[in-house]
Amino acid sequence: MAKAGRSRAVEVLRGAKVPLDAAVGALRSRVGRGARRQIAVKDAEIAALRRELGRTPGVGGTPVFFVVGQQKSGTTWLMRMLDAHPEILCRGEGRFFGREWRQESVKETDAKRPPSSLYNAVLDAEYLRLWIERSVWSRDDDPDEHVDNLLRMAVDYFLMAELSKTGKRLVGDKSPLLTPDTVGEISAVYPEAKVIHIIRDGRDAVVSAVHHSWNFGGKKSARASARREAYLNSPTERRESVFAKNSLGRMAAEWAARVGRTVKDGPKLLGDNYAEVRYEDLLERPEEEVARLLAFLGADSGAEAVKRCVGAGSFERLSKGRKRGEEDVTSFFRKGVAGDWKNAFTERDKEVFKEEAGELLVQLGYEGDDGW
Q1: Quick one: CA dihedral 363, 368, 370, 372, positive or negative?
Q2: What is the spatial distance between Cα 74 and Cα 360, in angstroms, rounded to a whole number?
Q3: pTM exceeds cut of 0.85
Q4: What is the pLDDT of residues 252-275, one digit of tens each?
Q5: What is the DSSP letter of 172?
Q6: N or C end of the chain: which has fewer CB within 10 A?
């Protein structure tokens, strides 16, 4: 069945409210008993039809979106601004995606530790997959397709339950780039969802991540504590690296892999449903960028709505009174500036980051290709 024909069939079935079994039966009736190849083709068509019938835009047609970004790239900041909009609920980090990402300490008693991804949790449910593989209702199908559809149902359940309490009409989740495949997973599970990717200079992101780990990283080693004290008490020009041995190379490689893959996969997989915004542009021209993103989501992007969102995300408000650039090393919103990596990187740090992620810095325009 051609794609256009299948789409027409989907619309007819939706309008007529025909049960899926009837649609399946109608397709199977066309198949000759002895034609194995034709059976395989028809089964593929049935699977595609099931996916299209089962994936309407959110529950009840509610638009769903995801804010993605590498750690400490401004995802929380953007989430706060969007959630202030009278039509938008965006109030958390569900960690729905990240098929291969697992928080090994998730079973510890500290309830504040972030969970593993919901996708990983579903995949880890061994007996759920065994049921899918063996049940008369699903054993002849692709189990991965059913896992994705169950994940979709679970995400809808959580998002729509919260949305129903608010009176708002759009709902979105702050979804960190736990793996390079995040956008690919979103496009498979939520092909109609909109995605906003916030990008920040990776060097600023890793400096911010180090401070975050000092404040919120749980158990702190004596060596890490000593490094923090040395940073706080030393003049800028004489500071040693804030990064533990080999950690900067790992962090730079993660930034390059996750951000680099997302800027490539986003337009290819999501098309017009993918948008990017730079952390630095939000700092420089917040009203213009917020208006653009609100229009992208299909929300009111008038001056009053934009002003409300930008005000909710002002550094003074988030930091409880500090002006942008006034540092509080113990705060989640530490400094709120661009280019602070220049005050923290040693010459060796510059070399390490360039080796692991220099190409992406140039590609994104954070550095020229003539050296830096």
Answers
A1: negative
A2: 18
A3: no
A4: 999 999 999 999 999 999 999 999
A5: E
A6: C
SS3 202: helix
The answer to whether the CB of 79 falls within 8 A of the CB of 173 is: no
Q: What is the mean pLDDT of the chain?
A: 80
C-alpha distances in Å from residue 149, one per residue of 53, 122, 144: 11, 11, 9
Does residue 305 or residue 222 have the better pLDDT?
305
287 has pLDDT over 60? yes
Inter-residue contact 203 to 96 (CB < 8 Å): no
- CA distances to 75, 127, 201, 338, 344 from 282, in Å: 12, 46, 13, 10, 23
What are the structure tokens assigned to 1, written together? Answer: 């069945």
Residue 312 and residue 318: Cα distance in Å, rounded? 8
Position 312 scores a pLDDT of 92
CA 229, CA 41: separation in Å to the nearest integer?
Answer: 66
What residue type is assigned to position 24 of the chain? Answer: V
DSSP lists the bridge partners of residue 277 as 198
Q: What contacts 325, CB < 8 A, 6 or more positions away?
A: 335, 336, 337
Residue 268's CB: how many other CB atoms inside 10 A?
11
Q: What secondary structure letter does DSSP report for 367?
A: S
> How many CB atoms within 10 Å of residue 351?
13
DSSP string covering 255-310: HHHHHHHHHHHHHHHHGGGEEEEEHHHHHH-HHHHHHHHHHHHTS--SHHHHHHHH
Backbone φ and ψ of 198, nearest 5°: -95, 130
Read off the pLDDT of residues 6-65 as tens digits, 9 standing for 90 and up.
444 444 444 444 455 555 555 555 555 555 566 556 556 555 555 554 444 455 567 899
What digits encode the pLDDT tens for the residues 306-343? 999 999 988 787 777 677 766 666 666 767 778 889 98
Supply the DSSP string of 229-250, one letter for each residue: HHHHHS-GGGPPPSSPTTHHHH
Element (H, E) at 155: helix 143-163
Strand partners, 89: 171
Sequence-distant (6+) residues with CB within 8 A of 14 are 53
